[in-house]
Amino acid sequence: MVPQEPVALQTANREPLTARGTAFIETFGCQMNVLDSELAGATLSEVGFNVKAANASGRGMGEADVIMVNTCSVREHAEQKAYSFLGRAYRLKKQNPELVIAVLGCMAQKEGALIFKRAPYVDIVAGTQHFTKIDEYVARVKSKRERILAIGRDDEVVSAKRYRIRDGRHSLQVAVMRGCDHHCTFCVVPNTRGMEQSKPFDDVVKECEILVGGGAREITLLGQNIDSYGKRLTPRRTLAELLHAVAKVPGLDRLRFITSHPADLKPELFNAFKEIPNLMPYLHFPAQSGSDRILRAMRRGYTFDDYMRLVDKAREACPEIGLAGDTIVGFPTETDTDFERTLELHRRAEYQNAFVFTYSHREFTPAEKMELKDDVPEHVKNERVNELLRVQREVSERVLARHVGKTMPVLFDRKDPATDPVLRVSESTEAGFAAKHEARITKHGLSGRSPQNLPVHVNAGRDLTGEIAEVRITRATGLALYGELC
Ligand code: SAM
Ligand code: F3S
Question: Of the residues 180, 187, 258, which should be mutated to test ligand 1's pocket, given the most ligand atoms within 8 Å of the CB?
Answer without folding.
Answer: 187
